[in-house]
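Budget justification note: compute hours in this period were largely spent on complex prediction jobs such as the one shown. Inputs:
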Amino acid sequence: MQEKQKFTIVVFNGDLDRALASFIMATTAASMGMDVTMFFTFWGLNVIKKNEGGIKSKGLMRKMLNIMNRGGSKRLKMSKFHMMGLGTGMMKQLMKDSKVPSIDEFIAMAKAMGVKMYACTTSLGVMGITEDALRPEVDGLAGAAYFLGESSDAKVSLFV
Amino acid sequence: MKADQVLDCVGLYCPMPIVKTAESIKKLRTGEVLEVVADDKGIKQDMPAWCKMTGHECLGIEEDGGEIKVYVKKTHDQGNNQ
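Corresponding output:
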């Protein structure tokens, strides 16, 4: 086997379907022996926010944003046919029936496989999200330079 | 084909058959063969690709109705302690 190959992925989007695609790629890459780094930014942070508790933030605009955009793996919506939750609920049921792991299960799998998960500090700061609002599986905080550094010698790099 | 261990992935979609193969192959000894039984047709492309990346050997693919059997030979111990 050759030297370990790298796979990096930016999770920009917070839709359920795109988050699933991201984790399918990340866990598959890890199972192929690749070093995997996931970088969550902007709406993608919703994927790695804790489901429980509130988001404490300062200032009216940030407070409003974090109420309207609460996030958390269990609150993600589909990019199409959300239909006030009906469509997303039905898709979740279909995926469960098809034994497709949930986002929570994918996060646990990815973690167990050594996938590294980083949150974007700029988005956290701008949106007023504190580190303690993120899931414990998150490995750390980083910026664009870290992602580009990791990607510079990656064989595959995606932006979702 | 004779296998040392069988992995049942019937009813599972991508990426689970591949993820489970990666897990199972760790438990085999070098030279042993894993038989993966699946019904997701993607495995016919996915398993050879997985083998190419990991260096394990894809010995062959058999199809019987909707059931697909893929035989993977463990060729090395790298990645065992991931």
